[in-house]
Specification:
This is Helix-turn-helix domain-containing protein. 54% of the residues lie in helices and 0% in strands. The two termini are 33 Å apart.
């Protein structure tokens, strides 16, 4: 499924880095008016440009441009930064086999699997699972299902930022570091430290940092304790956050339950969230009023 692109988020991150639109454009290899169009919502970049935009803004791809549901062939190609024509060059053929496989019309020739998997930076098994997804068949655990049970401190931060802020701007790395330090009453973590946790460069965090993260992101401190997998209560909280976010974004249009005074279980919410992720691309987008492009500042 395609990644979510929010021009307002791109603009906020760019401004946070004190970059002009022309500077971002130069890093990505496009014109400044094109960047202005992206940020205003008048245009959308091609999927294969998203990795370059995320890299230019020093942001993890999954954080800046999240996606729901298991990856299909188009997502794998775009995440590798390749156009259909470039993918076709890898297997020394026309665009037709790649296009047919991505659109679910005809599967890839077996001889194409290994070179494309190498070009996309995935295993052959992952490529074949993505191909199944392109044909409407779900054969393996999706990334979104894995994400439903984040394990590391950084994964939990990313999960909460992704799903826990509806109709409001999620706190930046700078804001999180400031709130953690304020809670600790001392400088216990830097902005680079937050980035390192979120990107997986480090998984180490002191108890005082974990307590500060819980305060900054408004969750129970137990969520950030070490564990091989989040406990049932924490998982239920995470699924509830994601579930409510789906409702507010209009991805769940209605829900009725009978004979259950205890509410939906974490397993049921996880199942609904998975369905939402698979069907999201079929739901109508809510139009937004385009913003006036900046003058480059």
């Amino acid at each position: 499924m395609p990644r979510q692109f929010d021009g307002r988020r791109v603009r906020a991150v760019r401004r946070g880095l004190d970059l002009h639109q022309r500077e971002l454009a130069a890093r990505v290899g496009v014109s400044a008016p094109r960047v202005a169009g992206w940020e205003s919502g008048k245009e959308f970049p091609k999927g294969e440009r998203l990795p370059a935009i995320a890299a230019a803004l020093d942001q993890p791809l999954d954080v800046l441009f999240p996606h729901d549901g298991p990856p299909d062939l188009q997502l794998l190609r775009c995440d590798a930064g390749l156009s259909i024509a470039q993918a076709a060059e890898v297997i020394e053929t026309t665009r037709v086999p790649v296009s047919n496989a991505e659109s679910g019309r005809r599967r890839l020739n077996d001889a194409y699997v290994q070179p494309l998997a190498r070009a996309y930076g995935v295993t052959e098994r992952e490529l074949l699972a993505a191909q199944d997804c392109s044909f409407g068949i779900r054969t393996s655990v999706s990334r979104s299902e894995q994400e439903a049970a984040p394990r590391s401190v950084g994964e939990k931060i990313n999960y909460l930022l992704r799903y826990g802020y509806v109709d409001q701007e999620a706190p930046s790395n700078e804001e999180i570091a400031r709130l953690v330090n304020e809670h600790a009453g001392a400088a216990v973590i830097t902005v680079d430290g937050i980035v390192a946790l979120r990107s997986g460069v480090t998984a180490e965090a002191s108890d005082i940092v974990r307590a500060g993260l819980a305060q900054a992101l408004q969750v129970d401190v137990g969520l950030f304790q070490d564990d091989a997998q989040v406990d049932p209560a924490a998982r239920e909280l995470l699924e509830a956050i994601r579930f409510l976010g789906s409702i507010h974004r209009g991805q769940i249009l209605g829900l009725a339950a009978r004979g259950n005074s205890a509410g939906l279980s974490a397993e049921m919410m996880a199942h609904i969230n998975g369905l939402v992720g698979e069907l999201k691309h079929k739901l109508p987008e809510v139009p937004e009023v385009p913003e006036v492009p900046e003058d480059g500042a």
